[in-house]
Every structure is written in C-alpha cells, then in structure tokens.
Amino acid sequence: MLFDETSLRKLQQLTLVTSRVRAGALRGERRSLKRGAGLEFADFRDYVPGDDLRRVDWNVYARLDRPYVKLREEEEDLAVHILVDASQSMDWGEGAQHKFNYALHLAAGVGSIGLSTGDRISVVMLHSLHPERSGAQSKDAITAEVSLRGQQYLTQLLKFLEAQQTAGITDLEAAARRYLIKPRRPGLIILISDLLAPNGYQATVKLLQQRGHEAAIVHVMSPDEIDPPLAGDLKLIDVETGGAQEVSIDGGLRDAYRERVTAWRSEAQAFCRARNVRYLAVQTNRPWDEVVLYDMRKAGMVK
Hints:
Number of domains: 2
Order of helices and strands: HEEHEEHEHEHHEHEHEEHEH
Number of strands: 11
Number of helices: 10
Largest sheet: 6 strands, mixed
Structural class: alpha/beta
CATH topology of the largest domain: Rossmann fold
CATH class of the largest domain: Alpha Beta
Strand order of the largest sheet: 6-5-4-7-8-11
Radius of gyration: 23 Å
Helix content: 25-40%
CATH superfamily of the largest domain: von Willebrand factor, type A domain
Distance between the termini: 23 Å
C-alpha cells in the first residue's frame, strides 16, 4: 500500500474540510475560529489591565495615543475519525477493484492528508461476528483502532491498514455505539462503507451527529454490484450470512435491479443532503487516488 512520491506530494497539498473547526488538543496547521496566540493576525481589541504588554501594538498606540492588543488566530489540530466498514460484504472484487482493499486505500489517502496537516487521525475497523460464531455477543461491534498525529507516523498507519481483514456482518449503528463508548473528541467522521448493513445506515448518521461530530460518507461499490453480469437460473448466496436464494435472471429483472440500485444510492444522497452530511458515491473501477484528489475535492471533503 506504499504511495509513490508523486501521489504522496499531491495528497500532502490537500486539507480536510470542516464547516467549523473543532477545539483541538494540540496546535496544528488549521485555523481556528478562536482568538489566541497563533501566528496569523486576526483583529484588535482595547487593552485592559492585566493584558500581556508584549501583545500591545505600540505603532497603533503611537498614532492614536490609545493602547490596543493584537488578536491572532489560534491554530489547532482537528480530530478526524475514519470508520472503515470491515464486514464480509466488503470482501468482494478482484485486484485493485476489491472493495475492502479499495476502502483501505481511501482511508490511507485521507489519513495521510490529516497527518500532513497535524490533525489527530483515528482509523477504526467496524464489523460484528457471525451470529453462529459469537452466540449472545453477535451484536457487539469488534473494532481495531489506531490513533496517530504527525506526518512521521504515515508508515505506522499504512502497516496498520495492511494488517486488516474483513469478518462478519456489520451492524453500523452497534459498531458506532461501541466506538463511541470511550470519550471521543468531536470532530470530522468519515465513514467508508458499502452501506449494505442489515439495519441500514440512517440511525448511524444520526447517532454520529448527536454526539457532536460532523459526518461524511464515502459509499463504495464495485461495478458488478451496480450492473451484475448475470443471466439464467442461479443460486445467489449472501456472503455475510450464507443465506441462499434461487432466481431466474433475464433482461427485465436486470433492468429492475439496476433501477433499484440507482434509486437506493439517490435515497442515500438525499438523506445525507437533508442532514448536511457530505456524500460521495464511488465505484472501485475508478483509481482510488483520483477519488481523493478530484472527487472528494468536488464533494467538498478536501480542498
């Protein structure tokens, strides 16, 4: 999953976009809405007793015979939470078009942008165990997580992502609740998923927003999920549950399927737009770096 130098340089010229900057724990390279002791000039205010005299603008005092204090923009790090759907349905496709590997590359690209700008990056795998394997714990989300800050940790991020595998069925809401059990600093959450969850994705988005996070969704699908090259009498097997369904596929059924998939993606986009959530639908036949460099920029996720 190593980046070539050209792609890495392009990624490091980008910044993750938020509609409002969250209060950071450490100083980064992102301008805050707060006023503090950063480097960029923001405004003046009247001097009041107790202010640091080093912040008085003596040139202004000499002209106006009145002391003013310089205000500067505080630079803060952003908390970025990258949630990757690691359920069995993501284990689909071949080579560069494999959905889970594709999602991991997107996570690596987004993570490298955040690390280069001093943001706090947390990358999390979300999945649940098969009911027959996990008994009473079937609803519990199993997560693997890494949290890093600083460009020097890019290699560690890539090693973490390379070690991940898919497993089980994702209940996105249960997985998100499990992740949020620990106190998490509100920030930007980017969910990378095929959204093929048994209980849907809507409750998950609402939960993330209720906890004070700004949400974005990258909806990943393979081309043959949108337009399957199938015909005749077939037995279709669910890759997550193992359930089977015998079907007879002809041109009419394929057309109905394509229409339903298009409507489903449109519904997801409309739902996200109504809740002020950035939504980007991508297919794995498009190079992942072009998605990060161009499509995410167009969707307002990076700049």
